[in-house]
Amino acid sequence: MMVNKLKYIVVLLMVFEVAAFCQNYTQYVNPFIGTTNFGTTNPGAIVPQAMVSVVPFNVTGSDLNKWDKDARWWSTPYSWDNQFLTGFSHVNLSGVGCPDLGVIMVMPTTGTVDANLKHYGSIMSGQRAEPGYYTCKLEKYNVKAEVTSTKRTGLSKFTFPKGESNIIIDLGNSLTNESGAYVKVVSDREVEGWRMTGNFCYHGNSERPVYFVARFNKPATSFGAFKKMPAMMGAEKDWSASSGKFKYYTQFLHPLAGDSIGAYFSFDTDAGESVMVQVGISYVSIANARQNLEYESNGFSFEKTRNEAREEWNNVLSKVRVEGGTEDQKTVFYTALYHMNIHPNIINDVNGQYPMMESYGIGEVKDRDRYTVFSLWDTYRNFHPLMSLLYPEKQLDMVRSMVDMYKEGGWLPKWELNSKETYTMNGDPSFPVITDTYLRGLTDFDVQTAYEAMLKSATTPQKDNKIRTNNDFYLQKGYVPFTEDYDNSVSIALELYLADWNLGVLANKLGYRKEGKRFISQSKGYKNYFDKKTFKMLRPKKADGTFIADFDPLQGQNFEPVHGFHEGTAWQYTFGVPHDINGLIKLNGGGKQFAKKLQDIFDHQLFDMANEPDMHYPFLFNYVKGQEWRAQKEVQRLLDTYFKNEPGGIPGNDDCGTMSAWVAYSMMGFYPVCPGDMNYTITKPVFDKVTIELDARFYADSTFQIIKHSGADKEYIKSIRWNGQAVKSFFIHHDRVVNGGKLEIHMGEKE
Amino acid sequence: MMVNKLKYIVVLLMVFEVAAFCQNYTQYVNPFIGTTNFGTTNPGAIVPQAMVSVVPFNVTGSDLNKWDKDARWWSTPYSWDNQFLTGFSHVNLSGVGCPDLGVIMVMPTTGTVDANLKHYGSIMSGQRAEPGYYTCKLEKYNVKAEVTSTKRTGLSKFTFPKGESNIIIDLGNSLTNESGAYVKVVSDREVEGWRMTGNFCYHGNSERPVYFVARFNKPATSFGAFKKMPAMMGAEKDWSASSGKFKYYTQFLHPLAGDSIGAYFSFDTDAGESVMVQVGISYVSIANARQNLEYESNGFSFEKTRNEAREEWNNVLSKVRVEGGTEDQKTVFYTALYHMNIHPNIINDVNGQYPMMESYGIGEVKDRDRYTVFSLWDTYRNFHPLMSLLYPEKQLDMVRSMVDMYKEGGWLPKWELNSKETYTMNGDPSFPVITDTYLRGLTDFDVQTAYEAMLKSATTPQKDNKIRTNNDFYLQKGYVPFTEDYDNSVSIALELYLADWNLGVLANKLGYRKEGKRFISQSKGYKNYFDKKTFKMLRPKKADGTFIADFDPLQGQNFEPVHGFHEGTAWQYTFGVPHDINGLIKLNGGGKQFAKKLQDIFDHQLFDMANEPDMHYPFLFNYVKGQEWRAQKEVQRLLDTYFKNEPGGIPGNDDCGTMSAWVAYSMMGFYPVCPGDMNYTITKPVFDKVTIELDARFYADSTFQIIKHSGADKEYIKSIRWNGQAVKSFFIHHDRVVNGGKLEIHMGEKE
């Protein structure tokens, strides 16, 4: 009996594997989406949550490029609008608004080695990208470049013409505005070193070396290191051949260090001969980078690595199977899932080691991953709830990582980058992530410590508080006072209210009733800002309790400075209380007034799809009986207008998958308006059928399906059924979803 | 009996030690001699043949300085003429004409840390120096700086006022024109790293990192690293606080690398509180630098280290005891011995490891030292013969090092710097050193391999010959032809003749008669250049056998370009055949003509005391019977004119002790005109009595004494006696000298 059963399981697994293989969801990923229009994604080769991506770097060195990384605020190693390539960078951020990383650059050239990127850069053509693979042609050299990757290594294959062919590793060229590197050629086929990164958002605190070992698939005929030499003066300049120029250190095996250095490996190639280089990365040490390289190497089998990358992606993408919709819509959807699986990314080496938070110690994880790149002000809103639903194991590891950061550094993360707190954006955005995850049933993390960490952040006076630097007045009076022109007082306070509400919810859940009451009460402080008399909006308030005089709700459009708000207008924050929409409705004079004001925002172009504070607005219509059709209409309009299968198909920074999570939810037809609130609100799905494969280790061994029954001109939801039973509300609880079942949505005319 | 004898020896040793201690020869060393007038020595703290010296670095950063290292060709970290100090460098060259090293800079400051040397530099005052110790006051900070050293470490003691006091380790500031460094703060009292050196003579091939570990005698209250950030452009510059400025990385324990970086340690000091830092150096690794530091540390006992340094010097200086002469003359003499014991210096770590020649391998010596810094074109002339006489063990280790360099790198050294061949100057200058050392009785080295190496260099065709790049025509026709304006053809050939003569002498000594004959015959090729018809001088000759037309014997004064000669005029080379002075006399028409021409050179200021090629000229009068008084007169005049107890007291580069060896010999009253020729020629001693302690392990257990019997106006040698017996000749053989005895010189009137 036993044997037979096992056999049966094996057969089933095989069937499943075949099915998964046959259904190739990676065909619906267009890695070029978001690569212009400030989406700041890139088409580089990457596997899910990888430490390494191999990204064509084309934002420097030539007027042929539309955008130059040094000519303006610039945060991505790649732009669709550019065409001058200066290599492939191995450590990159995707979809963020601040520059960092973009280092360990590999560039193929031919002829005499020239380390000046303005000289060695090339026009690129014939770009193609798919999950885990990117290729282009370098016109200057007639070289075909192909790159693929593993979690901790990048593998590049360069097909050269006949002659002298080179691979340059340029540690000067970078996206980060930090500089300084170390390089040591180890042999004729290996080089090691590190490159400093940091200066995130041009303001620092993320400084850290990234270690690498690069190995070639064949020995070089010659090799060396290079360094840009400082310019000398007068007569001295005349004696020194290399003053202000690159100096080449041929067959040099000593270490080299400097601001602009690198190494080169040259090969005598036949026509069409390929040379490969695999680069292992570590944030801990060169030794770990070498171990990562060796562990994740396929012995320079490029196709095997590429196929494995594709399969990894297909596994991730196939957790949601959509039917119906156009090819473009499927592509927008699966590309959103793709972008959601880039950050946070692992930072632990294959041996489990990682750099500890705000420390110089080395931590070690076992049987799980340590995550980094937490853009929490963005991602708490929708990204983590969707990770919890689709990839609960990853989400759990992310929360475990956050709690470990507190244990190591004393504070929960805010905008964590490579185990450093960058103090970017505001509020206390780890709270909603922790509470939301716990409430979704993912409880297998040290919640008591998490709660202790939240309490500490919420209650520590501001002079000792690394996260809440406005805590004293806030704790006393319940709001953050406007203290100087263009401060972010209201925005900060709104973040704190939501955080405190989540803290209260978690406290209640853990049985700490007193604290639960206190923080939920505290979360209502937003009412302090409501200007009942004049504007009927949230309005900056001074310490003396009076509103600021020169209030202009339109101030702040297009990133211009604004009193009291951060990256947006008062309009984009005035409904920024997702944890108390009903309170907000009451303040606004009831549902009708509320819905009218909301519609005005959309009608008068006061809504900003390109940033996070108002991204829940279209779903707020669902809180007013009879107005739900407006949500369906606006969501569809926003999807159609801003999210497209084209390079400009994300309206602003993807923000580590936050925009993508909005798209994915919206296209599936539901949305978690408030993290910590387990009710999803329902809107019209783009697809006829959506099947979410629930992870049986955490949820029911089942699927959650959304089925749209529709026809021509039937644009609005007429009725909703859950497992065959009619549902009155436009909300469905998470517990239902993860127990599996069918959500049937019947479309019809608007009444 | 046995016991009693032993007791007797112990008592004797104690007496000797007391005597040596009582007679403090270091009082006659003035480390400021040679620190201006291009002597290029420095007053830094150093022990004999040390890897490390701690040198006040005052050649950059301010217009207060007369000389700036970057404004002209400059080769010394210190100038007596300057007054703006920017730290103490730990690895330095002394008395050379090309810049390199001058790195690992330690500087005390007070107040807020500022890493810009133009800001942190200070006027220095109250300089005092003695062997192994240097002190000055930093006016800007009211800080007293004192430095001392061991073979492989420098120990600095800074006495601060009350307040915030800092010690900056600046790896940007340097004498070398190479750049790039790595630094890692290890703890609040230790920092490690390395600094690239090289670009010797502005032309490279000596690139090598110098590793260090610095340790403080107390923990810092704060510390960090810093880096000069590249200048950014436009708007980007506005966002970045550190664009084009120094960025400070506080309490930073990651490694940092770059062109201009360093570390700082800050202390809260009481008034008059001292902070000490000891810096260990290695050319192999940071680990070895740490081991050197630990092994040579006295637990921050500054006085103990200083006393040990003084005693080491006294041991070295007391090998020659002079009586009579003025205090200034004694000072000039002992300072010359002091300068002779700086280079060549050891490069092996305490564990015996050293970087192998022209290789990336690590060698290891046991029970002996590995030497580096071989300025052989200079030092073969007189420095090594005097080392053989006074310090035979060191000289043997130097020759052993040279032979090992051949074994490691395939060629004997020419101008070797830190195990790299810099290819500076010309000829084959290791030959005379090897032959001379062997003939002086120091035979305990691998002479067969040395001979093999010499044969290889002498006979390998030029395309495969790293040292003799003019070998083909030379081997065929016996001279180096003039091929282009301002070539060094005659100078090169003269070096080769002397080298080949030495090879011939060694071959004969080893029993290789055929080769002996061949190379001694080859050494006579200088006659090719003798222009019998017109100038009666050595004159550049073309490949077709004709002399060059536009020959001007005065061309080349003051380093102006000259046809056929290197760093000098034809006059300064025309007697450049020390191995065949009799042949030269014959060519010149006999002794009378020869002496007249020689006298003309001195009378018409054609002689150059500041460079090596003609430094044997004054002694050549001794080769003409009856003209010896001219040698005595000219040597005395040169000593009196050019060598003084003052900063300008060396007429040009000391050239790693070559000028100093000339002074020491001349003042003692004898000189080795030709290396490889064991006859010293005799001239008038400056002192009444000179006693050379012979090293009983190599020579007689005895002394060699020179006693001058003189009185008022008795300026010329009247007669000479050796061990009481009258000597007719003005020459004395080395074998006599090292067997011990008395050379009595009776002075009188000129006849």
From TrEMBL, chains A, B:
Necessary cofactors: Ca(2+)
The entry's keywords: Calcium, Signal
BP GO annotations: carbohydrate metabolic process; glycoprotein catabolic process
Domain of life: Bacteria
PANTHER family hit by this protein: PEPTIDE N-GLYCANASE PNGASE -RELATED, SECRETED PROTEIN
Subunit-level organization: Monomer.
Protein name: Putative alpha-1,2-mannosidase
